[in-house]
Amino acid sequence: MRLTEEEQAMYEGRDGPAVQRAMDLLMRYGRALGAERLVETNNVTASISASTPFMRDFAKQKGGMNAVFSEFSLDSPDVVEIPKVKVFTSHVQLGFDPAQAARMGVPEEAVHFYKKGEAFTTGLGVQAMNTCTPYQVGNVPTRGEHCAWMESSAVIYCNSVLGARTNTEGRESAGAAMLTGRIPYWGYHLDENRLGSHKVELGIDVETTADWGMLGYWIGDQVQERVPVVTGAGGRFSKAPNLARLKHFGAAASSSGGVEMYHLVGITPEAMTVEQAIGSGRPVDTLHYGAEERLATWRKLNANATDTAVDYVMLGCPHYTIEQIWEAARLLEGRKVHENCELWLFTPRAIKTIADQNGYTKIIEEAGGHILSDSCSAMSRATPEGTKVVALDSAKQAHYLPAILGLQAWFGTTADCIEAACTGRWDGRLA
Questions:
Q1: Beta-carbon neighbour count of residue 235 at 10 Å?
Q2: Burial class of residue 111, CB neighbours in 10 A (0-12, 13-18, 19+)
Q3: Which one, of 29, 40, 24, 47, lies nearest residue 175 by Cα?
Q4: What is the pLDDT along the chain (431 residues), one digit of tens a residue?
Q5: Which of 112, 290, 382, 413 has the highest count of CB atoms within 10 angstroms of its CB?
């Protein structure tokens, strides 16, 4: 790999052992990928916390958060002192919500350790956004900007909706990027890899957030790790999808497949036309999505659920927008969550503050629900005690949660889920 003078100096240890270790990791990583050089980045989304039991035990045994970062972010056999980050870095979601630890079954000892870890994180200059949707709370890269982001649903949003450039990085590569401002130049950093591979023609309008989630889930299953180019029914979309719909669409596509980028013709910034999205070549295949495919996807997402008695309703995967919290509050106002059911909504901590200010938290809590932040049930492995059946409005969570926790999962609209929370029973149907 070719290094600039600045990169060579970091690699030779000018900026200390941690940066040197980071450069060594990036060099090994880049060579394995076939990258010819590194590219400068000023925007990283990373995980450096130790909020899981394994990480907490490691920190206690090996020497604190410097030891955790050295081992799991730098692949360093030695514990090195970690300096402040060189570039703007935001933190992804954690293993639990420290403000709701007891509700999530997390011991007080873990909360004390978390507070020390957060002090370490912010002391490095990392933004404690603690969310899978950093673009909601201040990390909004511009079109063409090179980034180094973790979290599949964030990566696909970054590439597709914002038009910035990132691959799906891991804890190690993102950790190295935040100390060096560099990442291997390959994959979706390159123009040619951002062109579409498959054309997807819609035969029906896709309107609700649940509909966008189902479409994403079907597309991911069909194209796997390739780049779909989607045209609306009759060649154009009847209306532009909002942030929540695009968030759920991308999250679902990156769950059923490995999609890291998509194009919606006339909507996303690199797809004003089909020709722009696909380039000079022809698509590998042309796929058609209509009522039959929609029904099959809905059935697939609900395939493992049989019991209609719902113990738990989880909303907020990826983390809810303020608009989605507003919608949930409207659906809940004046109602009560069933005595045999729990309702948890997950959102970034910054958005929860807005929900508090607007009175939505009060409406939801008076109904018997709870707003949590910093995590989700898939990340935390936390559900209300005794949960067997969960209702979800997220195709991504419907994909993961049954496998992670062995639960039955119903998938439907937000209204379906609020109804289940208030009645204790699932009665969702495909409209």
A1: 11
A2: middle
A3: 47
A4: 999 999 999 999 999 999 999 999 999 999 999 999 999 999 999 999 887 788 888 988 888 999 999 999 999 989 999 999 999 999 999 999 999 999 999 999 899 999 999 999 999 999 999 999 999 999 999 999 999 999 999 999 999 999 999 999 999 999 999 999 999 999 999 999 999 999 999 999 999 999 999 999 999 999 999 999 999 998 899 899 999 999 999 999 999 999 999 999 999 999 999 999 999 989 999 999 999 999 999 999 999 999 999 999 999 999 999 999 999 999 999 999 999 999 999 999 999 999 999 999 999 999 999 999 999 999 999 999 999 999 999 999 999 999 999 999 999 999 999 999 999 999 999 98
A5: 382
Q: How many residues are given for the chain?
A: 431
Residue 346 has, within 13 A of its CA and on its CB side, a CA count of 31
Residue type, 190: L
Q: Where are the domains of the chain?
A: 5-191, 195-300, 302-423
Omega before 318 cis (within 30°)? yes
Helix (H, G, I), strand (E, B) or coil at 391: strand
Q: What are the structure tokens assigned to 174, written together?
A: 């993102």
Distance CA 47, CA 227 (A): 26
- For the chain, state the CA radius of gyration: 22
Gap between the Cα atoms of 161 and 263, Å rounded? 8
Closest by alpha carbon to 286, among 225, 229, 212? 229
Which option is the CATH number for 302-423: 3.30.499.10, 3.90.1300.10, 3.30.450.40, 3.40.50.620? 3.30.499.10
- For residue 344, give the nearest of 398, 408, 393 by alpha carbon: 393
What are φ and ψ of residue 309, in 5° steps?
-75, 115
Report the chain's terminal Cα–Cα distance, integer Å: 54
H helices within 181-321, ranges in order?
Answer: 209-223, 243-256, 274-278, 291-301
| Residue whose tokens read 């303020």 | 322
Question: Rounded CA gap, 364 and 153, in Å?
Answer: 26
Q: CA 351, CA 311: separation in Å to the nearest integer?
A: 26
CA distance 379 to 93: 8
Q: Which residues of 344-368 are buried (b: 16+ CB within 10 A; e: fewer)?
A: bbbbbbbbbebbeeeebbebbeebb
Structure tokens at 364: 């939801």
